[in-house]
Amino acid sequence: MKNFLFLLYIIFSFEIYSVKNQQQLPPYYPKCYRDDPKLNDCLLKATETVKPFLKRGVPELNFPKLSPFIIPEVSLEQGTSAVNYKAILNNIKIIGLDSYHFRKFEFDVANLRFLGSLDVDDVYIKADYNIQGKILAVPIEGKGVLTANITNSNATVSQQAKLVTKKGVTYLEPEKTVVNIDVGGVQPSFDGLFGGNEILAKATNEVIHDNLKELVEEIKPAIEEVMTRVVQDLIFKSVARIPYDELYPVHGKKT
């Protein structure tokens, strides 16, 4: 599920990065005008057009590879009756994010609202982990290597923005972002639980696998909260420096 956090950020704000420090979008990226009746078609097409470039990265824009996508660290924490844990993931490698397909990418210009929905077929995650807590009343602790196969996932992201003017220049600033996710299938494996105690590790992994559906539903709110916060923070940092007329120009208007 963590893979959506970064995929949504990449796709949702790629055009923002693309115009940073330059007046025009790269030649391979469709220019989408906010006064175009087919703006949403343009945005949807753009998500596919940029896919091969995202996959291998865009060095001149300091944009990393989409597959494999490397994340230095992610911290997770949750405390409910079913799941109560603290976890840190390091050196996260995600393979397969380029399998994304947007079903919808809309920008309501009049109300400054974005809405996107996408599917991701198959993703493989490998990371170093350190976890301590309980899952379904079963203790879980240790550090080692986590691997996971995630299939048939989808997500929606909505964002309300506003226009702000600084020194006579108008910028698009996010106000509220909401992310919802749905994971079709997950096959996780924790190597190194309980200091290498194979009996305890096997028992815990079995509990996880036997209760995956329930665990996914329990953990999902925490993941969505983290995703929402990071997506908004990251997009804000990008949008804050890019004029609105450069992000979404108007036909015949000079930027």
TrEMBL record:
Residues 1-21 form the signal peptide. GO terms for biological process: circadian rhythm. The keyword Membrane does not apply. The keyword Plastid does not apply. It comes from the Eukaryota. SMART domains: JHBP. One of its GO terms (cellular component) is extracellular space. Keywords: Biological rhythms, Signal. Belongs to the TO family. PANTHER family: CIRCADIAN CLOCK-CONTROLLED PROTEIN DAYWAKE-RELATED, PROTEIN TAKEOUT-LIKE PROTEIN. This is JHBP domain containing protein. It comes from Asbolus verrucosus (Desert ironclad beetle). The lineage of its organism: Eukaryota, Metazoa, Ecdysozoa, Arthropoda, Hexapoda.
